[in-house]
Amino acid sequence: MELLYEKSKAGRRAATLPNYDLPAVEAPEDLRRAKPPRLPELAEPELVRHFTELSTRNFGIDTGFYPLGSCTMKHNPRVNERIVMLPGFKDLHPHQEAEGAQGALELMWRLQEILEEVAGLDACSLQPAAGSQGELTGLMLMRAYFEDIGQGDQRDTIITADTAHGTNPASVTMAGYKLEKVATDARGNLDVDDLRAKVNGRTAGLMLTNPSTLGLFDENIEEVAKIFHDAGSLLYYDGANLNAVCGISRPGDMGFDIVHINLHKTFSQPHGGGGPGGGPIVVRKKLEPFLPVPAVVKDGDAFRLDHDRPKSIGKVRGFTGPFGVFVRSYAYIRAYGPSLREMSETAVLNANYLLAKLRDAYDLPYDRLAMHEFVLSARTLKREHGITALDVAKRLMDYGYHPPTIYFPLVVPEALMIEPTETEPKERLDAFVEAMLAIAGEAAETPELLKEAPTSRPVRRLDEVKAAKRAVVKYGFEEHPDLSADVGDVRQLEAQKGA
Amino acid sequence: MAQLSTTDADREEMLAAIGVSSVEELFRDIPAGVRFQGELDLEPALSEPELVRHLEELAARNVDTTKELSFLGAGIYDHYVPAIVDAVLQRGEFLTAYTPYQPEMSQGVLQAIFEYQTAICELTGMDVSNASGYDGTTVAADACLVAKHATGRAKVVLAETLNPQVRQVVKTYAVGFGLEVVEVPHEGGLTDPAAVREAAEDAAAVIFQQPNVFGILENAPELTAAAKGAGALAIAHVDPVSLGVLEAPGNYGADLAIGEGQSAGNYQSYAGPHYGFLASKAEYTRRLPGRIIGETIDLNGDRGYVLTLQTREQHIRREKATSNITTNQTLLALAGLVHLSWLGPQGLREVGETCLSLGAYAKDQLGLPLAFPDRPTFKEFAVRLKRPARDVIRDARAHGVHPGYAIGSDYEGMDDVLLVAVTEKRSPADIDRLAHVLHEVRA
Fold first, then answer.
1. Chain B interface includes A83 (CB < 8 A)
2. What is the number of CB-based contacts under 8 A between chain A and chain B?
3. Strand, coil or helix: what is B146?
4. Which of these CATH numbers, 3.40.50.2300, 3.90.1150.10, 3.40.50.300, 3.30.300.130, describes B69-80+344-440?
5. ipTM passes above 0.95
6. Which pTM value belongs to this model?
7. Fewer Cβ neighbours under 10 Å: the N or C end of chain B?
8. pLDDT tens digits for range B217-226
9. Rounded Cα distance, A108 and A125, in Å
10. Which of B102, B122, B169 to mutate to test the interface with A (most CBs of A within 10 A)?
11. Could you read off the pLDDT of B98-149 as tens digits, one per residue?
């Protein structure tokens, strides 16, 4: 398909703009643009067709089943898209006086209260823009807290699980901490003995996802929390998998001190092909003074922004965070009310149902009840038929499904991490099971079907190695290279795709 | 619950297949001590009509820019968002997709972001753009880390005329990055290149804003030269809408160009979600944070797009990654691409020219002393009032006009200064009304 720039023709345009007939004013000559940017030139009909055609080459949860593990691809209610377009929300300037933004401030305050209740903790900041920024903010809070109590220099290490998302160790580095990894035991829990050996006075805290990225609830969580708290350390809850436990087990009750919540996972902000997201953090009372500024507070019947927080870490994003995300998530939760628990129960039911149906055809590294997701392995298929997790994923596309997350978590070879979410009906799950079983059969009988897959998408397998080597990251106009001149072996990375 | 399809009969069948007798039993691995008892203390569920009514009531308590004639800016602007942006963003295939980890399922968004990267490079005169950052503040922090690693230096210099929120975010991140932050005060609303040259000795980077927080046009080429003369990277924080009339940072030698994308394609939306853009010269490509889309070919030799240079990223490199970013602002960046494509080069230039001429008209009509006289401005300018800006804002709002931002909350000695922004949506008649109201309230 042609690029916008290839369809462009000088002199065409889509925009009509006001002409106020004022005297022309030019920018100073030494600062003036010498040569116009080569933006596309198309009239509106072709512009609409271009983006519509692109959309048909994309797959969303609206298109079909999207069991991408750890991403919680649930239905996004359409009413939220209507609500977020109300002028009172979309046309509100963030510097509007508090008196003229009472509805927005009240919505944020209410969402904070809700998230505190769901997390089982005391105070909330909505400011972080995504889960990984919530992580970083949480680590900044730890640093500020320990500096405040005179242990800032002493505590320099964060412990993460070997099953952790890559964001955890990356956030640790960005926050200026050292990283220590703890192993997973045979049941898929944190290895408590390994943990005991590693937690000491230098430990600032733990970052943990619970249920883990294996989809397993850590059965020793109370003991784990005690080990850290006894050492004076803090516990950080990566909320990527909160969809499993809303109203069932609260991170605060598990012993966590800081939690981030992925509004684009658990609370249905549409992910938009990569974002936006929202990563509010919820904390125990003793950490509240360190939260980002401004805080959204209630005084009597009025709401305002409080900038006067002398111990605050500062700001991690502009203003008070991605407001439109808050509108959608608030609306989403209000539609459930106290029965939010049914959301998590159904997510866990759906995951265990798929697990029960698929466990004989694929390897199951940890034989326990799953929470909202589970991890299978294609290692037997690989050993016996040379079929990898990547091949299974590509073949699923031909059956009309988005593949699961693959090659993650790293502790499972040939991992297939499947998260159906609560919004899939049993019929969809059954059809997916049939596809997965058919593919396991094909792996033995017609493996070439898997190796050649997909054949039903707008493109065949793409060469990721060449993309990284040549690094063509923008259109080059007259000098654009022709990569097809060099067709060779197409190589895809057998590396994490998803989560 | 309308979001769930599971009937009682489905549930029974599914539990039987799993081999448990109840949903409760599915949670048996959760220790009793951490099981939540009872019901969450949340307000009762709302039906869809009730939900809409409740949210409409909240929205009605906000005074948005359709209810009040607004001249607020200071980083977020009321530019026109064309209808085609809404139409494209509501395509479910874009709206409800995850990050394009599987390229064969995601060619639509991958190609769109490749086109976005091209548009950002064209605007800024850079060689490579990432697929977006969170907003115009966090991309500044990201850029500092690029500069730290590129130079091996541990200090960054910020012009005081860089938006205060951007500076606050950089300072917050700098602690973990191990970076010292130095600020260069402005002189008469402008940053002095000589002062930058001096402060930038041993610095990894200098960040300045064009136009700056007061709307004033900095001598960007000289600031760039000053930074580079000291061996620091020059990072320009720019307004995308200005780049039809103002020179591209890459063309005056800047190493990185960053900015808040909101002006191009996003509603004000009480500050988000928006997108931040980050682009650089080719030599920094492998140090950039975030997703980058690259072109490649498939088995048949046909063109396609993938997430590329992933060995920079957290899911591959973990603690050695260039950044922890995973979720970015793809949908908002797509909005930016649609908006910029709707404008085209001619439309972008016209918006810039309109902002310039409206600004001059507004300065004339208001007849108020400029806080920084004789400085060329773009889209925004600062006027000095006879009394505190906060009071003038309150009184003008009583007449249905929000006259601008009280910048004294960010800069000392400026309590009587009002920052007035004009976009192409404000007509000369609107400006006349602003002038009239400011006169009425004895501003």
1. yes
2. 739
3. helix
4. 3.90.1150.10
5. yes
6. 0.98
7. N
8. 999 999 999 9
9. 9
10. B102
11. 999 999 999 999 999 999 999 999 999 999 999 999 999 999 999 999 999 9
